[in-house]
Design a protein that fits this description.
The chain has 25 helices and 13 strands. By secondary structure, the protein is α/β, with parallel strands linked by helices.
Length: 526
């Protein structure tokens, strides 16, 4: 693969819809000519010229020309134009890959889509590209690609297998049902693959595979139970409320959190019954999400389970049910409940960079890239010094006994401890010393940091502190980072709060999108 160095847009010149350069305006004109009339010799020449310009612009060091070139390829919408974008997916530059991905799912030409199928079949070197091709074939929604996607279930890489199972559900490809069923009932297989197979079966034929789906609600893996329960309202809405109420008694917090989200989606007496019960959950993260949902449904501001239960006994019969789904999830509303809860004086929470810590199983991710050695304007101090002081102050105020971990990250991720530890004076001092000792170097790989940390089944809340958007990683732009975080979070339900130490709004926007994807909050210091 070619060597590359990230060249980021100048935030001072950035706008949501940047003006096209003359070169790329011409490229867009060529592309528009191509789709306006049947092919002729003149049009073929125009296509050749447009593709030549697109090929050149896709290798530009700035993002705007690359994005315009990818969009021009989409307007051309044929095998040759999509091939240019697939070539970019095979390159090392993650910024370019994320940019061209924006256009790839929208290709409609049959031969362009078949070129994706060919890439899946023939690309034996790059498993990431095979995974992305399987994903695209599922998004295209054409069952013609079912046999190729089914074959990908036997790929040597687990990521490709997971994507194939998910895509088969999107395609509703019934001939693959027997293979999917074998995966779904095999408790020794990868949990994420198993859950994807269960959901795919239900989407292929909900009636025929209902028993397998319901069986998966009792899977030995808590992440599988969580993901399957999360898929239930869209497939078996009739049974989702009862299954969700039952899941509130799950030993694993993740299915309980998903159950709260399911119950929050409908304003019924039965859902409020269950949410009142969940308002006393032993996990603050689950408890506060249930309380946020109750506040949204009822307009009341109680903070304790006993208060909710008493009010509900008196008001249940007069409660007006609403059948349509709620307009916002409990996860989005949970953040708003923190200030009211603290103000009531019942559950006292501390803050980290202005964001309330509603968790007793928390991880702090501290940016150790070279950017953190720069000065934070508002504090007139080095960003790393401000970050260290904020961590120390927060850990000093948190309740002893809380489980926590700290990670330093740049291109690599280094944990304070392999597993979360109890907070006490000794562990606080050791964690602060660990962060202080870590050197600042290199660039930020936020995707690697987040995708690794949220895999810990004990952690329900993550605070990501960053000096700006990621520069390196499998995914770097918020569109791809958030897309894959949401997919991974079907199994984990982790809330990610983000803090940007940056003067640039464009950088801050990237971090804000990551927080929004998991129902977290965003804060920044300039």
């Amino acid at each position: 693969m070619e060597e590359w160095a990230p060249v980021l847009p100048n935030p001072e010149n950035w706008s949501a819809k940047p003006m096209a350069s003359p070169k790329n305006a011409a490229l867009a004109l060529f592309a528009s000519i191509l789709v306006s009339a049947p092919q002729s010799a003149r049009q073929k020449d125009a296509e050749k010229e447009a593709l030549s310009r697109a090929r050149e612009s896709l290798r530009d060091r700035q993002e705007t020309p690359r994005r315009e070139a990818a969009q021009a390829c989409l307007r051309i919408n044929n095998e040759k134009s999509i091939e240019l974008l697939l070539d970019v997916l095979n390159e090392a530059n993650p910024h370019s890959r994320d940019i061209v991905w924006e256009s790839l799912p929208s290709f409609t030409d049959r031969y362009a889509r078949k070129r994706v199928e060919k890439e899946l079949k023939e690309n034996r070197k790059n498993s990431d590209v095979r995974e992305w091709c399987v994903d695209l074939l599922g998004r295209f929604g054409d069952a013609e690609f079912g046999p190729s996607v089914e074959k990908a279930l036997a790929d040597r890489e687990i990521g490709v297998k997971r994507a194939a199972a998910h895509a088969l559900g999107r395609l509703r490809y019934a001939p693959a049902a027997s293979k999917l069923d074998a995966i779904a009932k095999d408790r020794s297989t990868d949990p994420r693959l198993r859950a994807n197979a269960v959901e795919a079966l239900a989407r292929i034929d909900a009636d025929a595979h209902r028993a397998r789906f319901e069986e998966a609600l009792g899977d030995p893996d808590g992440g599988v139970r969580c993901a399957v329960l999360g898929a239930m309202p869209a497939i078996y809405d009739d049974a989702a409320p009862e299954a969700s109420a039952k899941a509130l008694r799950d030993a694993d917090w993740r299915p309980r959190m998903q159950a709260v989200d399911n119950l929050a989606a409908k304003r019924t007496r039965a859902s409020v019954d269950a949410l009142v019960e969940a308002s006393g959950d032993e996990r603050p993260a689950v408890r506060e999400r249930a309380i946020a949902a109750l506040r949204k449904h009822t307009g009341m501001k109680w903070t304790l389970k006993a208060q909710w239960a008493e009010w509900w006994r008196e008001n249940r019969e007069s409660f007006v049910e609403v059948e349509e789904p709620a307009t916002a999830s409990a996860s989005a509303a949970a953040s708003a409940s923190a200030s009211a809860t603290s103000a009531a004086g019942e559950h006292k929470y501390v803050t980290y960079n202005g964001i309330t810590v509603q968790s007793d199983h928390v991880a702090f991710l501290i940016d150790k890239s070279s950017d953190m050695t720069k000065t934070l304007s508002s504090e007139r101090r080095e960003k790393s010094e401000v970050a260290l002081d904020e961590l120390d102050a927060t850990l000093s105020r948190l309740d002893p006994g809380l489980l926590f971990n700290v990670y330093c990250y740049a291109e690599e991720l280094t944990p304070f401890k392999k597993r979360p530890v109890e907070l006490d004076e000794k562990s606080r001092k050791a964690a602060v010393a660990f962060v202080k000792k870590a050197e600042h170097e290199g660039l930020k790989n936020i995707w690697h940091a987040l995708s690794t940390v949220i895999e810990d089944p004990l952690i329900d809340t993550v605070f990501l502190l960053s000096s700006g958007e990621p520069e390196v990683g499998t995914y770097v732009h918020w569109n791809r980072v958030t897309e894959h975080l949401k997919d991974l979070n079907r199994f984990h339900k982790v809330v990610i709060h983000t803090i940007a130490y940056s003067d640039y709004k464009w950088y801050r926007d990237q971090l804000e999108k990551i927080a929004e994807a998991t129902g977290g909050q965003f804060a920044f210091k300039e």
